[in-house]
Amino acid sequence: MELLVASAIGILTAAGLYLVQRLRTFPVIIGVSLLTYAVNVFLFASGRLTIGAPPILSDAQTYTDPLPQALVLTAIVISFGMTAVVVMIALGAYLGADDDHVNDPAESGDTDPEAAK
Amino acid sequence: MMHWIILPVILPAVLAPFIVLAARYHIGIQRVLSVAGVLALVAITAGLAMQASDGTVTLYQLGDWAAPFGIVLVADRLSTMMALLTAILGLCVLLYSIGSKWDARGRHFHALFQFQMMGLMGAFLTGDLFNLFVFFEVLLIASYGLMIHSGGHVRLRAGVQYVLYNLLGSTLFLFALGALYAETGTLNMADLAGRVALIDAGGSVGIRVAAVLLLLVFAIKAAVVPLHFWLPSSYAEAPGPVAALFAIMTKVGAYAIIRVYTLIFPPDLEVTAGLHSLWLAPAALISIAVGMIGVLAARRLDRLVAFAVIGSMGMVMIAIALFTQAGIAAALYYIPHSTLAAAVLFLTADLVRSGRAHLDLRAAPPIAGASLTAGMFFVAAIAMIGLPPLSGFVGKLLILNAAINSPLVVWIWAVVLCTSLISIVGFSRAGSTVFWKALALPAEDTQAPPPSALAFTAVGGLLALLIALTVLAGPVHRYTTAIAAQLFAPAPYIGMVLDTPGKLSPPQEGN
Questions:
Q1: How close is the nearest chain B Cα to the Cα of A70, in Å?
Q2: Integer Cα distance of B113 and B95 in angstroms
Q3: Which of B164, B179, B358 sits opposite A86 (nearest CB)?
Q4: B493 Cβ neighbours under 8 A, 6+ residues apart
């Protein structure tokens, strides 16, 4: 179980980082999503892995840590909202410039773009 | 009186949806509500700063749950000073955006502005690391909206870079929090301070990883080289008043570094010893150099200011990296100065932009109201470079003085003094090209109208604050020394947070 969770986090992170370095908006957004999945599983594992134990008080003998579950829930909601925002902004940039590169085009910092139009 | 601490967070949080829902189509009502809200914030944070000025630490337990189980807000000298600075900067920037009509060029400026204030206030006042992450996200998501305010595809592209870089930063923050929680089982700052001190140096791999990850996250926010790549484009392309407001956002990173690395990982802690002198100090020196050379190399006025921000964050960071009381006191004097100077420069660049077709550093016909704008640029540039008589000079002097016992003293003095010279050349060249060479060209027939009096008043207000910071340098520095003393004696802070009774206290075993 530890091996499965650890390798899942590792593979998700590696794939996410690879995609982020593609520097086109679609792969980068997918890459960021994979990274947030990885971090969610990582947060979950930070409260130690226990199988079949309840997170709230009952007559059980062992418990699982409830706090990471709350943290993960918050992180999921935030990363979902952030991804939605970045998709909208990226779509606007792509439709406006007809170009989905994340980097500035070469020499763009030299002149005021609005004056060049 | 206890509930006052939550008000800087609650007030904008209530006001923003109210502005969206009730005053959606009435820019006048939006302006009145927004200004009233920020005025109230100035009053509240000034009250909190007064309350904290004698060294009392005020605690607010949300839902009356005792720390470390509940979330706490803590108002000590440092957090109230940063909150007050934010509120004052917010007021001037808001007045400028109304005066220059930036707020009417797109929708929901005022609502997003209030959410931004909420995130900033929360980040400064919270006493819980995960809560700090949440408030970072609140201020970031509002800043995404502000950054692309009034649109344009160049601005949107810069917005994409900004959002993506910060999303990666947030992911890194979560990894750091996960590592920290796995090692200690708590995320309350005061509780962490006690538990990290118990970890013996032998089994400290996890906690060291967490400490470095956290430093990386805050360095991204503070735009320390080599993690600064998000800043030049996004600050240069953001609307002028928004860029001026963002001047406080890099200071959130600086604040978080000061807070976490004095409270949780203090400089004398064995497991993280050497982190600052080994990594942060060289990075800060390179930041100063990159920023100031960028000032010289920039071909647009807004990019020049963005690089000046990187350079001045480097100054703040080198003072923090010393991690002595004198160093932190100097950094805390330099932070308000750097925030105000950067804001004035961004607003002046926007004043120039309102009369010119472009911001390129080449001669263009003179703009309306050029003499006043030029004077403001002159004063702000003097402050930013650190020439006498303004506060930048006092701040740099304090930092150089604090560095005198550091092993890196030769490096610090050499880099700070050489880069100051470079930035003098950069700013003088930019100022003379933009304002003096214009006089040689014939004025255009269709000159844009001069910026409104309110816009000039807002910039003038910030300049007056800079001058006040210079004149009152003695009392301000005494106060920042008191803040540093409080930071280096965290026992009352920790005691206040952990020993105040609430629900679920005294803390039970087993968590």
A1: 11
A2: 12
A3: B164
A4: B57, B74, B76, B190, B263, B486
Tell me B471's DSSP state: H
Place of tokens 């890196």: B408
In percent, the amount of chain B with pLDDT more than 90 equals 63
- Residues B330-352: pLDDT tens digits? 999 999 999 999 999 999 999 98
Contact list, A36 vs chain B (CB under 8 Å): 167, 171, 174
Q: What is the pTM of this model?
A: 0.93
Nearest residue on chain A to B298, judged by CA atoms?
A110
Interface contact flag, B153 A92, Cβ < 8 Å: yes
Give all domains of chain A, ordered by start, each with its CATH number.
2-51+62-103 (1.10.287)
**Which residues are B72's β-sheet partners?**
B61
Which residue is associated with the tokens 């100090």? B281
Q: Which residues of B touch A86 (CB under 8 A)?
A: 160, 163-164, 167
* Tokens encoding B61: 């337990």
Q: For residue A6, count CB atoms less than 10 angstroms from its CB and return exposed for 0-12, middle for 13-18, buried for 19 or more.
A: middle
CA-nearest residue to A46 within chain B is: B182
Q: Are B465 and B340 in contact (CB under 8 A)?
A: yes
Q: How far is CA B476 from CA B50, B321, B395, B487, in A?
A: 14, 21, 11, 16
pLDDT for res B510? 43
- ipTM score of the complex? 0.90
Phi, psi (deg, nearest 5) at residue B300: -130, 145
The DSSP H or E segment spanning B32 is: helix B27-52
